[in-house]
Amino acid sequence: MYAHFKHAPLRRPAVSGHAADRRLTRQLRRFAHRQRRAVTAMADRHPRLADLAFSFPALLFALSVRRAGFPAQAVMDAVIRGESLKQAAQLAGLPLWLRKLPPESFNGAIPKLPDGEVFRRRICNALPKRKRVLGLWLNTVSFTAYWGGEDFAVWAAAQVAKPGSEARNDWGKLALWAWHSLRPELPVSGLIATRWTPAITLDKAVELAEAWVSAINTQLTGQAARPMVLPPGPREVDGYLFCPVLGPAEIASEAEAMQNCMRDYLDEVMEGTLAFWSVKRGGERVAVLAVERTRWNPIPHIREMKAKANEDASAEVWQAAAMWLAGHDLTEGCAGLLATAGPAIDVRVWRAMWKPYWLDRRKCPWWLPHAPGDAWQHRLSCVHIRR
């Protein structure tokens, strides 16, 4: 079927007949299952389009799964005429560094990506070795480059490439903090205690970004963060010691030790609607207890409790936690604490604060809207990047 491959402009040994056909079939099977039929149909159109499966998988995928406004016919004509891959990539609006990515990297229309010469060299040094995170990595690069800048995107790409750093929902908050870190002349940037640099670790960046967001909320509402504090009660029950986990630094340390996602709830901790306790026995960590209170139920109660790596805690630990919480006089100073909403944020102040960012990015993201609402801090921690 593809015996004419030996005439195609590929920098690889010529193959023909069934060997070429089998090789192409194996390569096409590496693309995501949902888009494989479209990619195969595109490859069947012309031998030179099929050659892209080897020489430039991203370009073949972009022709098959198109984003809005993609000049598909013009790009196909250029490839079939035998123009260089560089010319075809420029016509398609794809960065040439995508040639280094294998077929497993693509799971949806390829987003817009930066392609400066310096960025091209740096981003290739941050390619992940694990194929299963390639899609998430590529989408993270696109998101962080647009909302945080190219330098921040290179840093974010290196973080996602590391094991255990994939599942994050706070890239919006981090991008916003990094962008303002590089613009100290803006009023809201003056609230940043420590600015982003490429040398900073991911955990430290999350801690500093959360502190900045908390400082902004204090300025907007006139209220400082008020972490949850329970009335006096027992510290130990049935041999289990309950130790409060206070502040971003302790939460990051506990999350790393227990292999969980406590960091994703820093905004609720700072608002005082959630608090964590480390449950220990004999000096060893056994579980993490999450206690919450809401506007509709201001009495602190157990939200969840998990052992290491989010395994279920034993019934014995649950019983000890229930007895520990019951040992506090939860009605003392708690009833009605969150019965009413906090002070409203002045919309004019809010818009003046973020207007430079919106204008520079030429867009107002859903996670930083024109009107703040009560849950604006929570929105910043709910940015899910597609895998």
Write a concise synopsis of the structure shown:
This protein is of the alpha+beta class and 387 residues long.
User: Could you tell me the number of beta strands?
Assistant: 5
Strand content: 5-15%
- Identify the overall geometry: globular
Tell me roughly what share of residues is in helical segments: 40-55%
State the distance separating the first and last CA atoms.
Answer: 35 Å
With strands numbered from the N-terminus, the spatial order across the biggest sheet is: 1-2-3-4-5
Gyration radius from CA atoms, angstroms: 26 Å
Q: Which structural class fits the helix and strand makeup?
A: alpha+beta
Mean pLDDT: 85
Low-confidence stretches: 1-18, 335-341
Order of helices and strands: HHHHHHHHHHHEEHHEEEHHH
The domain count comes to 3
Largest sheet, if any?
A: 5 strands, antiparallel
Instruction: Work out the helix count.
Output: 16
Can you offer a commentary on this structure?
The protein is α+β, with helices and mostly antiparallel strands and 387 residues long. The protein has three domains: 106 residues, no CATH class; 124 residues, no CATH class; 91 residues, no CATH class. Helices cover 44% and strands 8% of the residues. The protein contains 16 helices and five strands. The longest helix is centred in the middle third of the chain and has 20 residues. It is globular and about 80 Å long. It starts with 16 loop residues before the first helix and ends in a 7-residue tail after the last helix.
